[in-house]
Amino acid sequence: MAMLEVDDIHTYYGNIAALKGISLTVEEGECVTLIGSNGAGKSTTLRSISGLTPPRTGDIVFEGENITRTPPAAIVRLGISQSPEGRRCFPRMTVRENLDMGAYLRRDDGIAGDVERVFGLFPRLQERERQKAGTMSGGEQQMLAIGRALMARPKLLLLDEPSMGIAPILVERIYETIAEINRQGTTILLVEQNANYALAVSQRAYVLETGTVALSDSSAALRTNPDVQKAYLGG
Ligand SMILES: Nc1ncnc2c1ncn2[C@@H]1O[C@H](COP(=O)(O)OP(=O)(O)OP(=O)(O)O)[C@@H](O)[C@H]1O
Ligand SMILES: [Mg+2]
Q1: pLDDT digit string (tens) for 141-161?
Q2: Edge-to-edge strand order for the sheet containing 65-66?
Q3: 193-215 pLDDT, tens per residue?
Q4: In this structure, which of 19, 59, 105, 179 has its CB flanked by the most CB atoms within 10 Å?
Q5: Is residue 61 within 8 Å of residue 232, measured between CB atoms?
Q6: Residue 92 has pLDDT above 80, yes or no
Q7: Strand order in the sheet with 156-160
Q8: How far is the CA of 62 from the centre of ligand 1 (A)?
Q9: What's the pLDDT tens digit per position in 10-66?
Q10: Which of 11, 15, 16, 88 for a ligand 1 pocket mutation test, highest count of atoms within 8 Å of Cβ?
Q11: Which of 6, 37, 38 to probe ligand 1 with, by most ligand atoms within 8 A of CB?
């Protein structure tokens, strides 16, 4: 059984169907990418998994437990945390306070050690520990959003467009760190419109089109697929 099994989910906003039968799996230890154009349903898929917009029908099973109707905070406790689209750092809180917010559901004594781990992954955040998040650059805030999600010590990390609006040099840095997080043992489900880096870092990928899975394959195969190159890789 896969770590995450998403089976034929249909998710709605009011009466608008955003997902029309999405199925996918993520194995423990994998990094998997969802690519697709604006409105394809990438964010809605992540929001369905994290419980923010639960599907109307279909099932989501995490480590053997059906979480389709589980509330978001309980899903975080089970080991899934998300870095949302658009970063959503708390702008008036410092870097350190944002990281502490990521651990708010934890009662164990490993929190300080995990702050050190995040600082090791993103030295820039350590330099800016006492800076207000709202005054940092877009790339720095993206690092903080990923760091904050890691502070929940997730088994499965959901990343929604970590490269959006960020200078190429920082995108490269962020993707090196995503690869390192995966190497350290965290399973990752990643969403990107700009598919070049995402397909380089992941092992498998799904292509979403208007709320359905159009294609799924190894990331290596999708990178050389002419249709994917034309639509998503600027080729
Ligand atoms: N809050 C909402 N209310 C109504 N419709 C919504 C809402 N959020 C998303 N949708 C619709 O659901 C569909 C899927 O949106 P979603 O945000 O999942 O796409 P996406 O693949 O993440 O796109 P993008 O690359 O632009 O972020 C779109 O048609 C969108 O208009
Ligand atoms: Mg989106």
Answers
A1: 999 999 999 999 999 999 999
A2: 16-26, 4-13, 57-62, 65-66
A3: 878 899 999 999 999 999 999 99
A4: 19
A5: no
A6: yes
A7: 80-83, 156-160, 187-192, 31-35, 204-209, 212-218
A8: 24
A9: 999 999 999 999 999 999 999 999 999 999 999 999 999 999 999 999 999 999 999
A10: 16
A11: 38
Ligand 1 pocket member 43 (CB < 6 A): yes
How far, in Å, are 77, 123, 152 from residue 181 at the CA level? 19, 14, 14
DSSP, residue by residue, 123-185: HHHHHTTTSBGGGS-HHHHHHHHHHHHHTT--SEEEEE-TTTT--HHHHHHHHHHHHHHHHTT
Closest C-alpha to ligand 1, atom 25 = 38
CB contact at 8 A, 141 and 167: no
Which runs of E-coded beta strand occur in 16-153? Answer: 16-26, 31-35, 57-62, 65-66, 80-83
| Cβ–Cβ < 8 Å for 129, 123 | no
Distance 43 CA to ligand 1 centre (A): 7
**Ligand 1 atom with least separation from CA of 47:** 18
The string over 115-154, giving b where at least 16 C-beta atoms fall within 10 Å of a residue's C-beta and e elsewhere, is bebbbebbebbeebeeebbeebeebbbbbbbbbbbbbbbb
Question: Which residue, judged by its Cα, is nearest atom 16 of ligand 1?
Answer: 41
Task: Give the domains, in start order, of the chain with CATH numbers.
Answer: 4-90+155-232 (3.40.50.300)
For the whole model, what pTM was predicted? 0.95
